[in-house]
Amino acid sequence: MGAVLSVLYGIVVYTFFLATSLYVIGFAGNLVVPKSIDSGTSTPLAEALIVNLLLLGLFAVQHSVMARPAFKRRWTRIVPEPIERSTYVLAATLALALLLWQWRPIADPVVWTVEDRAVVMVLHGVFWLGWTVLLTSTFLINHLEMFGLRQVFARLLGYATPAPEFKTPLFYRHVRHPIYLGFLLGFWATPHMTAGHLLFSAATTGYILIGIYFEERDLIAQFGDRYRHYRERVGKLLPWPRKAHR
Description:
By secondary structure, the chain is mainly α. It is built from ten helices and two strands, in the order ααααβααααβαα. Strands 1-2 form a two-stranded antiparallel sheet. Helix 2 runs parallel beside helix 9. The radius of gyration is 19 Å and the shape is globular.
């Protein structure tokens, strides 16, 4: 019964995560969703800045702290290991949903507005390219494990999940963090950049850069020289040419 409940929990969390992630695309692109990054009731600038920065900070702290191995070791003394990842995904999704719900738009000043039709189409193309790269990259490594489904089904079916494997398929051969690259393209590629959108994009970019630092420190601890050599050959977020082997 515990294994069945774990699977149901994992599926519910994943569904919530998937719905929230789709909302993020509409939020960042001012598309379809009832409340986007630039829509909603305007508030005084000071209030908007304070609330938005607190929301971004809450998400960043939760997302980063719970991802660290030291926290996981302590956390799994309370939360059963098969649902640890799903619980992390749930906490991250709740923090993200709160940000989307309570975000205060800041319409002025407008940082840039692109009116050339061709350039607008290019920016929209880059926007969708970013989300495509992001989604594809999760499947290139292990989408189901990343979001907790593999772990709960392993418990139900009675098999052990294999140890993490270092691999560099497709995008990972050219960029170390294509998932983060996808986020950056999706957040920055807009023909109409308001002050609020700029705040969101700049803050998330800063968090991504900090997150990469801690993530790579964990990867080096886990994979050692294999990851160090990979880091020397492959660019962080841009496909720099590989260094020649000596």
